[in-house]
Structures are given as structure tokens and as C-alpha cells.
Amino acid sequence: MSAETPASTESTADTASVKFTDLALPEPLMRALAEVGYESPSPIQAATIPPLLAGRDVLGQAQTGTGKTAAFALPALARIDPAQAAPQVLVLAPTRELAIQVAEAFQKYAHFLPRFHVLPIYGGQSYYPQLQALKRGVQVIVGTPGRVIDHLERGSLDLSQLRCLVLDEADEMLRMGFIDDVEAVLKKTPETRQVALFSATMPAPIKRIAQTYLKDPVEVAIKNKTSTAANIRQRYWSVSGMHKLDAITRILEAEPFDAMIVFARTKLGTEELADKLAARGIAAAAINGDVQQAQREKTIQNLKDGKIDVLVATDVAARGLDVERISHVLNYDIPYDTESYVHRIGRTGRAGRKGEAILFVTPRERGMLRAIERATRQPIEPMELPTIETVNEQRVSKFLGRIGEALEASDLAMFRELVERYEREKNVPAIEVAAALAKLVQGDQPLLLPQPARAERKPFERAERHDRNAPPAPRHERHERSDRHPPRLDDRSTTPPAALGNKGEMLFGDDAPAPRRQPAAGHAPDVGMETFRIEVGHAHGVQPGNIVGAIANEAELESRYIGRIDIRDEYSLVDLPEGMPREVMEHLKRVYVAGQSLRLRPAGAEDLAGGRSGRPAPGRRPGGPRPGGKPSHGGPRKPFKPRPPR
Question: Is the pLDDT reported for residue 2 higher than 70?
């Protein structure tokens, strides 16, 4: 297929009136769609499902969140043979998070298909469960390119029976440096396989892939028309610095609001969150698909009447909800598609009123944040989380308000006499008696939030106040990483490494682990860093990018805080922040890189002997082929030069 005379067609059909019943999908898939409440396909689904069902190759251009997972998953499932326990569909995705998400979607749509199995394979996970699942037999593989190539080279993945190959978010794989791996996988698939390529943009390398490997594709371009109301202010808070529950508690206590809907992703999540909020003195209730209609109506009426202020709901349960006093929508769990986000925040700002939308985003969800901004064509501004001082001022104000309300009561005479009697008999000043009564009223719940140490609080308050539009760091200052352990989507936090805890939480005061002593031998690491030994080296074919990717993902540590890496023959040395939490260190011991368990431990003097090089393996050009002609997967394109920690 040449660029000058493309043998393709552009999908221009009006898809507004199409129903899933019009798409000739098998009955088991229709039952699954009915179970999850799908009725009408999105434009990308309506345009791509028919040609994919017909066996045509498809080149689809659509933003993240337009429903393209179902666009390729449904026709792929319609054409597989569940009785054949061999990979018939392979989906390549840029990150393990997307791979897991796509695999879950396949499982959901195949709910009524007998003997169906789907397997996500990605770096950062032990090979053993993946190998066992492949031996048992699966029909659909969803994986990151590097780990897929690993299995192909091991001989554990057989693509001889492959019927369909899907490249999901191809431009993102290009941006992350995996396009060579994608092409290597394409070359190992049968000539007869069907190919579906989806990409938000079509840069030249993606067009070249399409022209080389797609046969007479149907081209589909979907223009996203999703928009949000201009009268809704949209803000996000990155939760890498503190727990979601603590963050929402601060917001609920300090942010003026009338009523709020909080969206959680699962039914269980709504119940748990509502219970935890209620335990903190917040009038909250949950609705989800398991709540009976009568109870749902009662809960919504309570929200309208002001008997509860916070409604925790799933997407399905909140459909059609229109309560005038809802001033805020808070996305406790980020939605997986932009349409859901638009529908969620549409619960506020109705009939021309002002509304507030708040979104909690973890570092790995930054890609979805950017997708929402692109789809809605509106920026989502970072929010300032209420400070501890602000929350405490609000708590004191409310407590004083309760005292004022009690003083206005007309039946205080008896209590006044009791206080005077206690004062007289016990010789205790009335002010001390009043303080004791106030503490009695407050109970076990502390009135004020505790203050962290002053010197440690400032870095935390700065942690997420970064400019998301700032230019990227120079290329020589950025890590090149392998997709076997996909990089986190956020590389811009300025959180200091010494305060990082498990899963990226900040640790203060007594929670902060004591720093370890550095062995007094060999080359000393940078200030605030400690050298560790890991049991993988040149002999195992490892590259710096593999190590960085694994540690960044498994320790949830920004890659910029991973220091120099010195790869030796049988082991490697890596500089990590001092004071890494014990549970993180224990977890990293069991992480596999290049098929080897890291067994990470502090480096000794004998490990440090011999100097530090950071060179790639002998006989290998960074990013080039391995000795013997095997391609590398996601290795650095130049010698590894991490930026020193700040």
C-alpha cells in the first residue's frame, strides 16, 4: 500500500442512530452488553465493529476515552473459537495499567463465552504466573511490547494461531520509545492475521507502520465533540502526597459546599467510603447497583432534604440524578473514559448554576487526566488542598458555633446549678469545669488535626504545585526506560526522596524511617542517596532502562530519584534515596528483571570495589541489537545519565 495511492476508505457514515442490535454481534456478547447497560455504540464503535467483523484491517484515529476498547474487543471476541486454547488475539498496549484495563474489558464482554481466558502480560510481574497461564491455554493476550517479546524469545508464547493483532494507543508506544518492539512483534505474527491500529494522532512513524503492515485498511477518524459546561470549575488534586481519605476529609471540612456527589469506581468502594466518612462525622450515604430502588429513592430524598450532605455513588447508580443543591462533584476514583467524566460532573452546574468538579489523580493516572483535558478542550487546574491550619480553624469555628446554639437554649438553669455546685464542692474554677464538659462532648475524636514538624511540612506543601505546562527536561537529563516495567505517567513531581513512603505516601515525624549508613568504601553516592546491590548484570542481558523501569514502577518512585547505575558482570549497583521504607525494600527483593530476582540489599565495601562505570553491556550498542542479532527491547538510546536528586 503506497502513501500516494492509499487503498483505504474513510468512514463517514452517520452513526448517531445505530444500536448494538444493528451490529450483528453474537448473542453471548449482546447479553454481556445488556448486563452492563450498553445500548448505543459510540461513534468509534459503530464505525469500526462492522469492518472488523468482516475481517478487514482498520486504521482508527480517536482520542483516549472514546470507547475504542469495546470497538476492537467485541469483534475480536465474535471471531475467536473458545474451544481452541491457543492465543488468537494479541493486543499491544503501552503501559501495564492499560494492559490490565483492556484485559478486564475483554473479561467483562466475554462473561457468557464458555471456556474463555484472557491473560495480561507485562513487566514488573513475576514470569511464573504468566508461564503457568500460557501453559493452561488462553485465547486473548494483552501485553506490553517488551514482555511479549520476552515470551516470544523464551518460546513460551506461540502466535502461530493468531487471528487478530491490535495496536492500542500506537502514538503513545511511539512516544515511549517502543515502536521498534511493536514492529518486531508484527514481524513474528502470521501473514494472515487481521490488524487493527488505533492512535490518537498519526505521526509519520505510525503512518509507516500502517502502510507496511495493514492490508487495504478501513480508515476511521473520529472528531471528539465532548465538552463540559463552562460554568463548572474543574480542579484536580494529585494523591501521591497523601491518602485519598485524608484529602477528601480536608476538602469536606474546609471547602464551602451545599451537597456533594462523590464517585467511586466499585460498589464495595462506595459502601466503604460512605462508612469511613460517617465515622468522621460527615453525613454521608452510598448508592450503587446493589441498593434496592426504594432505598435509593429514600437516600436521594434525604439528600434533597439536607439530611445527608454527601452521596457516594457509582456511575450507574447516579444516572439521571438531578438534585438542585448539589454544588460539588468529586471524582474519588478517576473514570476510565472521558464520556463518564463528562456525565459525572454534569450532576452539578445545572440550569445555569455554578458548579465545582474535583478530580483525584494518582501519578499513574496522569495520562487519563491529559486525555480528559484534550477531549473536553478545557484545562483542569491543580487545586490547593486546604491546609491543616484552615481545617482546624473551621473545626474550632463549628465547635464555638455549637456552644452558641446551646447558650440560646431556654433550659440551661439546671445545668448552671450543677456547674456552680461542682465549683463550690470541689473548689474547681468554672472555666475548668466548662473545659472538661467540652472535652466530654467532643469524645474520642480529636478536635484538631495534628501539625507535622515545621521543617518537614514545607516540601510536602510544594510537592504538587508544579507547572504542568513547563517544557520537558533536556533529553540528556531524562531516563530512557524499558516498557517491560512501564514508566509512571508523571515525571514532574518535586517531592524530596527522603520523605517518600510506601505507594508514594509522604512520611513525617515518627513514621519516617531512619536513614541507613553507607558502607565506607569505594565511590560514595550523592548526598541523600545509598548504594544497593541487585543480582542482575551483563550476563543476564540487562540494561539500565530495565532496572529504572522496574524500580520506578514497583517502588512507585519517581525515576529522577533513581541515581547512578553500574552494571557489573553478575550484579549491578544502583543508588536509591536513603531511608526507603522497609516494606518497599522487601518488595523490591522479589521483583524480577531480565528473568532474575533482584534480591536487593545495601552494597558492601567488596561490592563497591572496582569503580563505577554505568556502561552498557560489552558488545552491545545502547538501543541496538544484542549479540547474535536479537533485537533489544526498550533499552536506552544513549549512555545512562540520570539527573542527581535535588
Answer: no
